[in-house]
Each structure stands twice: as C-alpha cells, then as structure tokens.
Amino acid sequence: MLRETIMSPPEKMQAILPLLQRLYPKAHCTLDFADPLQLLVSTILSAQCTDERVNLVTPAVFQKYRTAADYAAAPLEDLEEAFHATGFFRQKAKSIKQICQTLVERFAGQIPPSLEELVKFPGIGRKTANVILGNAFGIPGIVVDTHVGRVSRRLGLTTNKDPVKIEFDLMALVPQEDWTDFSHQLIWHGRQVCMAKKPRCTACALLPYCNFGQKQQ
After folding, report:
1. Catalytic annotation on 92?
2. Is-contact 183 142, C-beta < 8 A?
C-alpha cells in the first residue's frame, strides 16, 4: 500500500506536468475541423455526445454549410435534421443559428479571437471559448470538461466542482504557455486511465501524487 504523499497543489503540479507531457506528447483536440467556424460548430455539437460521433456527422454538415452566413440563413428544421444524431439537436441548432447570425451581423462572419467576446454568444461558455481559442487561434486556455474536473479533484489539484472555479485553480498552477496542452493531456488521461467508473489506478503513472488513487490501494 502506498503512503499518501503530503504535497501542496503547486508541488504536485511540478511533478505531474512533466509526467503528463511524457505520457501524452501528442495529445490534441480529437474533433475534426479545418477552421475556427468548424471547430465552434463541432464543439457545440460535442455537448453530451462523443467526439467520435460528432466527427461522423460533421463532414456532411461542413460540406453543406461553409460560412457563418450559411448557418444563419438555414431553416432551423434543416439544422435540426443535420445535427440529429448528436443528441439535444434542437437546442444545438438554435444556438448555432443564433451564434452565426450574430457573427454575420457584428463580426463580418468571422469568429473573434477573444474570450470576452465569445462568452457573450448564446451556447458558448468558457469551456467552449477556450477550446476554440486554444486550438483554432493558438491562444492558451484551460478547458474544464468532465474529465479535467474529475482528474483534477482526484489528484487534489482543486476541491471545487464548479468548472469556472476549477479553471482558475488550474490557471494558477500551470504555466500559461502549457494551458492548452495540459487540458488535452488531462482529457486523454481521463479517457484512457482515470475513468469515472473503474479507474485503472494500479496502472496510473500519477498514482504517487493522487489522493483518490492511493485511497483505493
């Protein structure tokens, strides 16, 4: 049985970050996209849906709707049909249409590379905004999805459950230039090792630094 190491969150992060970088050197966004608009659409469609399913749906969507003006002008029923397989398609269609209408009216159809502007759009919170900024514009951001939240709490990097509070806790621990890569690495770790059910604690390289994992031994 491992003895739990008493370390502060900053001390843990110093040990964890290089491990994650070594374990997941090619961690990246698993949504398929060719430009910021495609990533925005894919990210909204990925809510309560797997990236794999979204990637099956979006090729036909991106072929039909190439610009923000295309989505803005499309009948809502057509968008609902196009998004149907991703679940919650009515709300997703409504959000994407409204966002694209605003893009056309206020931003000449282009996505503003600004978190402050993006979170003003319906259906875009800090998580979606940071996905877009980090992966389409190269602007670092911490993305707190269910995996990042779960793994961060288990590791003892945060005690919060609110995604925004977790984001700010992690921002204080991770160098800014690593924010986007760290998010991908934690997401991949959550998918492959630190699952919600039946986490593979005994096979986890982060076990010496994990409050949750050590209590399972």
Report:
1. no
2. yes
